[in-house]
Amino acid sequence: DVKVTQSSRYLVKRTGEKVFLECVQDMDHENMFWYRQDPGLGLRLIYFSYDVKMKEKGDIPEGYSVSREKKERFSLILESASTNQTSMYLCASSANLAGAYEQYFGPGTRLTVT
Amino acid sequence: AQSVTQLDSQVPVFEEAPVELRCNYSSSVSVYLFWYVQYPNQGLQLLLKYLSGSTLVKGINGFEAEFNKSQTSFHLRKPSVHISDTAEYFCAVSETGGSYIPTFGRGTSLIVHP
């Protein structure tokens, strides 16, 4: 089974802190994604990566950056956390299976910025 | 560009009753369709997918969905729900031809009452 793990389930940070969210997948998937999930807004794509050291902006990249130094690891960085970044953050990975790319998700990190 | 509309944000139902969660999409090309489920405090997991072939797709936990190309719909159904089906359900679409970035709907919260 594909396993996607995230470094923390719950995180509380102060405004202005630099925050690192780590994601690791164990199935050699090419693609990795970071989403944030907010009530009534569904999943919104922050950044994605289709290869090591490659990254692309999603729909809401402002205030975030990412790093992918190894194929299995994709990090999300909040350079200076703000209260409006309080949210659930979900990491996912995918690979080409019969032409479709079904996504595999981690358990999520619930981040609270105070 | 594609889009997904989940017509109901919340669906309350009594245990053992049938349920239908509605999903409509728009796309100018052929698509793959997915339903994901998110149980409380967990990440998303795949419930079922339509890639090609039979328009009736069966998934895990007794769920099924029917692809209707003329109505651009992919509604999810279960003939008899359990308390344990209480969760958030997300419909997603991705274009055939190699697109690996899905578009998610905003989700439908299924609440099963005893």
Q: What's the helix and strand layout?
A:
The complex is a heterodimer of chains A (114) and B (114).
Chain A: E1 4-6, E2 10-13, E3 19-25, E4 31-38, E5 42-51, E6 54-57, E7 64-70, E8 73-78, E9 87-94, E10 103-105, E11 109-113
Parallel strand pairs in A: 2-11
Antiparallel strand pairs in A: 1-3, 3-8, 4-5, 4-9, 5-6, 7-8, 9-10, 9-11
Chain B: E1 3-6, E2 10-14, E3 19-21, E4 23-26, E5 31-38, E6 44-50, E7 56-58, E8 64-68, E9 73-78, E10 87-95, E11 103-104, E12 108-113
The gyration radius over C-alpha positions of chain A equals: 13 Å
Uncertain segments of chain B: none
* Assembly level: heterodimer
Q: Tell me about the largest β-sheet of chain B.
A: 6 strands, mixed
Task: Give the SSE order of chain B as H and E letters.
Answer: EEEEEEEEEEEE
For the record, give the distance between the C-alpha atoms at the N and C termini of chain B, rounded to a whole number: 41 Å
The main pleated sheet of chain A reads as:
7 strands, mixed
Quick synopsis:
With 114 residues, chain A is an all-beta fold. Chain A has strands spanning 4-6, 10-13, 19-25, 31-38, 42-51, 54-57, 64-70, 73-78, 87-94, 103-105, 109-113.
Structural description of this entry:
The complex is a heterodimer of chains A (114) and B (114). Chain A has 114 residues and is mostly beta strands. Chain A has strands at 4-6, 10-13, 19-25, 31-38, 42-51, 54-57, 64-70, 73-78, 87-94, 103-105, 109-113. In chain A, the strands form 2 sheets. In chain A, strands 2, 4, 5, 6, 9, 10 and 11 form a 7-stranded mixed sheet that branches. The N and C termini of chain A lie far apart (37 Å). Chain B is mostly beta strands. Chain B contains no helices and 12 strands. Chain B starts with a strand and ends with a strand. The model of chain B has no long low-confidence stretch (mean pLDDT 93). The chains are: A mainly beta (114), B mainly beta (114). At the A-B interface, strand 5, strand 9 and strand 10 of A face strand 5, strand 6 and strand 10 of B.
